Amino acid sequence: MSKGYERMAVEDRWTKEGEQFMRQLRELAELEVRIGYQSDQGSSGGADDDKPRADLVDIAMWNELGTVNIPSRPFMRDSVDKHRTAIEHALMAQEGALRKGATARKVLETIGIFMKDLMQTEIEQGDFVANNPETIKRKGSDKPLIDTGTLKNSVNFWITKKRQGD
Fold it and tell me: Which ranges of 7-103 would DSSP assign to H, the alpha helix?
């Protein structure tokens, strides 16, 4: 060691704000926000209709991916793919909110609300394959994905612990 210099032990300590920030980062590492539909959320058709009830998850999947009789109307994928820049800005804003003291749950809730709105807007305004004439006659509308409004109004988000392997 050089003459005149002694080693000094240095101990880092977090400020109250720093400790809070680190707690929120640890919580964020364990949580995620999911946007879409849950299997117990509801169904369409049934008692007053002459068709069997179908779970909203199935209806969303059939419309998103398409079937033999339904063309693909990818409202979930399009709500992400067409709005990447807006999503990036929203995420950066939430990073800033976290730095200013927002909780992990508040950040995820804000992201969930933002993404739910994007998906509902895509259902309303998306450029999808037109309904066939029989569907237009039955619904009284030529707007794909909009019949009773159940699909659009049932989009939701939930905050959950991350699952291993996802």
Answer: 16-30, 56-65, 75-81, 84-99
Q: Which two tokens stand for residue 120?
A: 């509902």
Q: What is the DSSP string of 97-142?
A: HHHTT--HHHHHHHHHHHHHHHHHHHHHH---PPPPHHHHHHHT--
Q: What are phi and psi of 154, to 5 degrees?
A: -95, -5
- Tokens encoding 130: 């037109």
- Look up residue 87 and give its two tokens: 């999503």
Cα angle 87, 17, 157; round to 5:
30
Beta bridge partners of 156: 36
102-153: pLDDT as tens digits: 999 999 999 999 999 999 999 999 999 999 999 899 888 888 998 889 999 9
Dmax (CA) for the chain in angstroms is 94
Q: What is the DSSP letter of 49?
A: S
Structure tokens at 142: 């030529």
| Residue 56 tokens, joined | 């909203």
pTM of the model: 0.81
